[in-house]
TrEMBL record, chain A:
Record-given protein name: Sigma-70 family RNA polymerase sigma factor
Source organism per UniProt: Autumnicola lenta
Family annotation (InterPro entries): RNA_pol_sigma-70-like, RNA_pol_sigma-70_dom, RNA_pol_sigma70_r2, RNA_pol_sigma70_r4_t2, RNA_pol_sigma_r2, RNA_pol_sigma_r3/r4-like, WH-like_DNA-bd_sf
Keyword Transcription in annotation: yes
Signal peptide extent: none
Entries under Pfam families matching the protein: Sigma70_r2, Sigma70_r4_2
Family: Belongs to the sigma-70 factor family. ECF subfamily.
Record flagged with keyword Transcription: yes
Residue ranges occupied by any RNA polymerase sigma-70 region domain in the UniProt entry: 14-72
Key words, A-Z: DNA-binding, Sigma factor, Transcription, Transcription regulation
UniProtKB/TrEMBL annotation, chain B:
Keyword Transmembrane: yes
Transmembrane feature ranges: 70-88
Organism: Autumnicola lenta
Annotated protein name in UniProt: Uncharacterized protein
Taxonomic lineage of the native organism: Bacteria, Pseudomonadati, Bacteroidota, Flavobacteriia, Flavobacteriales
Keywords recorded for this protein, A-Z: Membrane, Transmembrane, Transmembrane helix
Superkingdom, natural source: Bacteria
């Protein structure tokens, strides 16, 4: 496989890999490094990739495992800051500030979820994978994935409701 | 989509039982409608997931296959080197010009050279004079021997 073949196979998944890394790791820099590392790993295993029917699922699995390893290594633990740098133009500044605020709430709530739920929420609600694909990536039964997803969604909604009520009571 | 339908889908959504198509419907609904306050958290969630998806990888392009590039670079370098040698040897004017250049000196430069030489000699002379006195330092060492012996 030449570099061109490889890149044309991997590039469509690159942003998804990056966003998954961003979900699990602490900063854009860490996520970019992780994506880079994973691409190198995949390049090293390019002979294997030929055999995989679903390259993207494999790439996502490697990304997931790599990020979890990084977390286990406590590589990033001295830098536990929630990143909240979103670029959303086209709305007025006031509105934008509100949006950013809301987004950073969700960001923080998700960060408090168990890693497994974070991954599943990311794959389903952000990347819109089918349950079968998620099953392939995380190596879990579809029913277990549904349960984890349901828990994640409920938890996020509950936390947001609490936050919302709190804000109303204060003002 | 009617509000009742939205509420039904939301219920399914929380149980993890909606299909991708249904979730897309919800997402579209929340991005285009103002919603009653009990649905506000869902608007935030769907807004968030849509926003996060805009994030793209900005890092550098990884992985290179440098071997190929190096071979071409090596060939190019060899050609340049060969050409250079060829031109140099077939063009004797370079040789002729080069040899005398470093010896030719104007009178002024020679004067400066001699002056510098004299100054340096002077410095070295004084330095040697000064160093002669340092011979006495050896005495300290021999004295030290006795002290060490006593200990």
């Amino acid at each position: 496989m030449t570099q061109q073949d490889f890149l044309s196979k991997i590039n469509p998944s690159r942003d998804k890999m990056y966003r998954l890394a961003l979900r699990l790791l602490v900063s854009k820099e860490a996520a970019e490094d992780a994506t880079q590392e994973v691409m190198m790993k995949l390049w090293d295993r390019k002979q294997k990739i030929k055999e995989y029917a679903n390259v993207e699922a494999y790439a996502m699995t490697v990304t997931k495992n790599y990020c979890l390893d990084q977390l286990k290594l406590k590589y990033n633990n001295n830098l536990r800051i929630v990143h909240q740098n979103y670029e959303s133009n086209s709305i007025s500044l006031q509105k934008e500030m509100e949006v950013r605020d809301e987004l950073s709430w969700v960001e923080r709530i998700i960060k408090d979820l168990p890693e497994q739920q974070q991954i599943i929420f990311q794959l389903r609600d952000v990347e819109q994978y089918e349950f079968e694909e998620i099953s392939e990536i995380v190596g879990m039964e579809c029913t277990a994935i549904r349960v984890a997803l349901s828990r994640a969604r409920k938890k996020i909604r509950e936390s947001l409701t609490k936050k919302h009520d709190y804000g109303v009571k204060r003002s | 989509m009617e509000l009742r339908e939205v509420e039904r889908l939301i219920e399914q959504y929380e149980e993890g039982n909606t299909s991708l198509a249904e979730e897309k419907k919800l997402s579209e609904y929340f991005s285009t409608h103002t919603v009653p306050s009990h649905l506000e958290p869902y608007r935030i969630i769907f807004g968030y997931t849509a926003e996060v998806k805009k994030e793209t990888y900005q890092g550098k392009k990884p992985i290179g296959t440098p071997q190929k590039n190096y071979t071409w670079m090596a060939i190019a370098a060899t050609i340049v080197l060969a050409l250079g040698l060829f031109v140099y040897q077939n063009n004797p004017s370079y040789n002729a010009g080069g040899e005398n250049n470093d010896i030719v000196m104007t009178a002024e430069q020679e004067e400066a050279y001699l002056q510098a030489k004299r100054t340096l000699l002077l410095v070295s002379e004084y330095m040697n004079d000064g160093k002669e006195e340092l011979v006495h330092l050896k005495e300290i060492n021999s004295a030290n021997k006795f002290i060490n012996l006593k200990q």
